[in-house]
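Hey, resending since the last one bounced:
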Amino acid sequence: MKKTALSNHLTKLVHAGLILKPDHNKYQLTPDGELFIRTLETTYKKSKMREKKGTEVIQRRQFSESFVESFFG
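The structure tokens again:
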């Protein structure tokens, strides 16, 4: 990400009240910012898409293991 894009994103987060800029090049989460991050984490953990990807990873691993076992015993 370019420096200007990062700066624009950080400015938006400051204006939204999700982060503070106490010093030059220093940022910290506000309580609302922390709540926002925790909410995103919870939503992601409950996501059906995440669950599906996890299932696909397990299925691919099992397929690979059975393939290797059938050829190399």
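Residues 48-72 form the longest helix (25 residues).

Sorry for the duplicate.
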